Amino acid sequence: MPLTPSDKALVPFVSVDHMMKLVHHIGIEPMLIGLAEYIEADFRRWELFDKTPRIASHSAEGVIELMPTSDGEVYGFKYVNGHPRNTKAGLQTVTAFGLLANVGNGYPVLLSEMTVLTALRTAATSAMVALHLAPKGADTMAMIGAGAQSEFQSLAMKALVGLKSVRLYDIDPMATEKAARNLTGMGLEVVACRSAEESMEGAQIITTCTADKQYATILTDNMVGAGVHINAIGGDCPGKTELAPAILHRASIFVEYPEQTRIEGEIQQLAPDHPVTEFWQVLAGTAPGRRDAAEITLFDSVGFAIEDFSALRYVRDRIAGTDLFTPLDLLADPDDPRDLFGMVMRAGPGAG
Question: Is residue 322 part of a domain?
Answer without folding.
Answer: yes
